[in-house]
Write a structure and sequence with these properties.
The chain is an alpha+beta fold and 354 residues long. The protein has 2 domains: 162 residues, D-amino Acid Aminotransferase, Chain A, domain 1, CATH 3.30.470; 160 residues, D-amino Acid Aminotransferase, Chain A, domain 2. It is built from 7 helices and 18 strands. Bound molecules: pyridoxal-5'-phosphate (PLP).
Amino acid sequence: MTAALDINITKVETSKLLEMTLENIPFGKYFTDHMLEADYENGEWKNVEIKPYQPLLMEPSVAALHYGQAIFEGIKAYKDQDGNVAIFRPQDNFKRFNISAERMQMPTVPEEIFMEGMRMLIEIDKNWVPSMKDHSLYIRPFMFSSDPVIGVKPSETYKFMIILSPTGPYYTAPMKIYVEEKYTRAAPGGVGFSKNAGNYGASMLATAEAKKAGYDQVLWTDAFEHRYLQEVGTMNVFFIIGNTAVTPSLEEGTILAGVTRDSAMEVLKDMGLEVVEKKISIEDLMDAHRAGILYEVFGTGTAATISLIKELRYKDYVMHFDTDQWKIAPELKTRLTDIREGRAADTHGWMFKV
Ligand SMILES: *Cc1c(COP(=O)(O)O)cnc(C)c1O
């Protein structure tokens, strides 16, 4: 599928792994021995390199720091009981990365650099992939504009990189969520569907205010009426209403097309639920709650997989859930992690062998 990749490889002399243990390692804090780096210049990608993880040397004028052409992905690799390493659906992240790139007027990255570069990097750092339950290797591909020029225009040069971070169980307690009516994450015509750095920067004030009010995150609503539901924090959102799993549809371009979202839809169908993507308003949700058929609410994303929601507040209307009684979200989480960690058959063909 991928052509042989011409890569310059420089390895570390001694692995940092000799001085640490991967058990229960916190998310996003420690990085493996190596990283991948490539440069875009004169219309082509060159200098593809795997080398020791190290700081970057940049000019203060580097364009990404000023005008925000910066995109990323989040992917996970797992080691099964026999020591085989596999990546969860990286092809989907590759496609999404280039969709983000096009929206941000950045060059696309060729498949062999993204996919084969990632595979080779993980092969070199395979001792860093934890095999303990609920552990994984978090993969962070990213790209940023690198012209040392202050001027509002697309950069002519870019850097593409992949760094790797081993991670232990990412436990999140059931969350209290505030339905956002003041701030907006995404509007039609905007950049909500792209995984660009600015979306995160723009969301932090809303999250901070929700936290001050005693909530963990916000449930984003549409930009015009603050009625139609979008995402929960940086996760896609699902509602179990009767025997149907409902998730907001992607067509307006205001929602990030999560790989976990797509996987959850497939596994929920395997579990016998009807799955519906549609425009859903807070009134629809409150009606279902009043009727006693809003059973479960949860978020999906690569970092936490499934996050349960125990309270949802809209104005003065508060919906409480007893997450200990839930059947669907916990079963969905178990099924997804069993596939990823190699305990269940990969019937959907999601695992990409390293
Ligand atoms: C990354 C992300 C998600 C989740 O996507 P996954 O592919 O499932 O990790 C959801 N919403 C936003 C805003 C995101 O950035």
